[in-house]
């Protein structure tokens, strides 16, 4: 309180302006006492200080004094429980319906390698806890705690570090909940042949098992150190890192067999960078659906310096029951979105190589309408395709279909630059109906973009 001099006699009017009887106001203690109401969320700062006035004698010089702050806090609008200074117990337990946070505990995790907390998407929330003491222990801890014990699993991709951390106890309910506790973790060994997943030191992939782990670290960086035979493969749903098929000056290939319906490819979607990849000739997509590409179904990133010898097979027979199926196949991608880039990349594979002439004739009927909208590089391009090639395979053609089949792109609203398709009379790019009404072409079927 302002104006209190430790060298003066105790002044009850100043020290206890509210006239509250308490042992804290005993004169012999020479304490000051005050009551202050701080609103919810408010703060207050107090300074304990002593000084000697100018008029004091030398007898007080060089002496020291002790200060002590005793804080008794209670809810001012709760009078039933009494004043804590007079032995009251404070407020009643909060209503769980009105204050569910008082019955919650949040477990956060700190990365011991970086010293930083993981994002709260990794945190675990325990809600609707009963009143009492709750113990939180590591999932791998000995199961010897009391009934109100919660065994906490480490977040996916992490392990506890150290592995024998002590349990933590929380008394429920808590004020200003949820209560927050913390355990320490570190990234688990991802099991690659080398690297740490950074751009400077990418994970090294040497076998199919390691390649399949890309889906668990899809924002990291990877490099192939061997030809990868994936066998029967489920496409990685999304990828935003980088994958380089060249290691120490050697380019490696990936082969696969994919069976499914829509949006099939080595990756379903890519917003990262794929470079120096080779899709081997024994790579096959067998689909009963649409929207497929041998590298990516939907590309929103960069594909460069790649080559694909892969095959997309529409496996459905031409019939009214399958109307509108087995269409929209792209040699590299189904869709290249705005700002996406395909550069210095070649397709020398096959689309629908097993279609017979009778399948194609039947599929032209309006009530069947199948095997159309296929492109040597892409079906839809809204981004940039530059310095790319479609080259007819050594046996057969690149594309078999009905209508709107293009050597390059079926529909272009973006930019195609310095890109061409080439074949021979014996091995053409297109094996399709030649009547102009079917809109099949060696370049682009529908163009509202730029072709340079």
Describe what you observe in this structure.
The protein has 452 residues and is mainly beta. It has 3 domains: 1-92, no CATH class; 100-187, no CATH class; 203-451. It is 4% helix and 32% strand. The strands form 8 sheets. Strands 10, 15, 18, 19, 23, 24, 28, 29, 33 and 38 form a 10-stranded parallel β-sheet that branches. Strand 13 and strand 14 form a beta hairpin. The longest helix is centred in the C-terminal third of the chain and has 7 residues, at 357-363. Residues 78-98 are annotated as: Disordered.
Number of helix segments? 3
User: How many structural domains can be distinguished in the coordinates?
Assistant: 3
Instruction: State the end-to-end distance.
Output: 82 Å
What oligomerization state is this entry in?
Answer: single chain
Helix/strand/pairing class, anyone?
mainly beta
DSSP helix fraction: under 10%
- Anisotropy-based shape: elongated
Question: How many strands, which pairing sense, and closed or not: the largest β-sheet?
Answer: 10 strands, parallel
Unreliable segments of 5+ consecutive residues:
1-10, 22-30, 84-89
Strand content: 25-35%
Number of strands: 41
Region (Disordered): 78-98
Summarize the structure.
About 5% of the residues lie in helices and about 30% in strands. It is mainly beta and about 450 residues long. Helix 2 (about 210) links the parallel strand 8 (about 205) and strand 9.
Write out key terms for the chains shown.
452 residues, mainly beta, 3 domains, ten-stranded parallel beta sheet, nine-stranded parallel beta sheet, 3 helices, elongated, disordered N terminus
């Amino acid at each position: 309180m302002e104006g209190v001099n430790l060298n003066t006699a105790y002044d009850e009017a100043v020290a206890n302006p509210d006239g509250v009887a308490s042992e804290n106001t005993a004169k012999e203690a020479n304490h000051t006492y005050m009551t202050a109401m701080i609103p919810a969320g408010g703060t207050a700062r107090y300074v304990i200080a002593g000084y000697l006035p100018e008029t004091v004698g030398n007898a007080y010089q060089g002496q020291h004094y002790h200060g002590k702050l005793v804080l008794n806090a209670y809810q001012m609008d709760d009078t039933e429980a009494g004043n804590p200074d007079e032995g009251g117990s404070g407020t009643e337990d909060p209503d769980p319906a009105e204050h569910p946070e008082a019955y919650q505990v949040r477990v956060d995790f700190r990365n011991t390698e970086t010293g930083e907390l993981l994002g709260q998407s990794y945190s675990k929330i325990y809600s609707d806890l009963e009143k009492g003491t709750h113990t939180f222990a590591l999932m791998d801890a000995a199961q010897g705690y009391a009934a109100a014990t919660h065994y906490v699993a480490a977040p996916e991709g992490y392990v506890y570090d150290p592995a024998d951390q002590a349990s933590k106890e929380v008394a429920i309910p808590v004020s200003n909940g949820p209560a927050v506790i913390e355990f320490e973790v570190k990234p688990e060994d991802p099991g690659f042949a080398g690297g740490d997943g950074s751009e400077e030191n990418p994970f090294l992939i040497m076998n199919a098992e390691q390649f399949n782990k890309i889906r668990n670290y899809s924002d990291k960086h990877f490099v192939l150190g061997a030809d990868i035979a994936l066998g029967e493969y489920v496409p990685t749903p999304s990828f935003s890192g980088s994958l380089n098929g060249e290691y120490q000056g050697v380019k490696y290939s990936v082969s696969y067999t994919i069976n499914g319906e829509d949006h099939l490819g080595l990756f379903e979607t890519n917003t990262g960078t794929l470079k120096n990849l080779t899709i081997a000739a024994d790579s096959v997509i067998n689909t009963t659906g649409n929207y497929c590409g041998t590298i990516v179904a939907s590309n929103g990133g960069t594909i460069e310096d790649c080559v694909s010898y892969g095959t997309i097979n529409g496996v459905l027979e031409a019939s009214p029951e399958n109307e509108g199926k087995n269409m929209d196949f792209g040699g590299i991608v189904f869709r290249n979105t705005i700002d996406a880039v395909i550069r210095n990349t070649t397709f020398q594979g096959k689309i629908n190589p097993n279609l017979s002439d009778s399948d194609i004739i039947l599929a032209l009927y309006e009530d069947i309408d199948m095997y159309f909208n296929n492109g040597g590089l892409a079906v839809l391009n809204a981004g940039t395709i530059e310095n790319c090639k479609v080259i007819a395979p050594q046996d057969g053609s690149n594309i078999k279909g009905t209508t709107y089949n293009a050597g390059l792109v079926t529909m272009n609203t973006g930019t195609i630059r310095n890109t061409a398709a080439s074949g021979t009379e014996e091995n053409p790019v297109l094996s399709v109906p030649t009547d102009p009404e079917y809109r099949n072409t060696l370049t682009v079927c529908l163009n509202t973009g730029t072709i340079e």
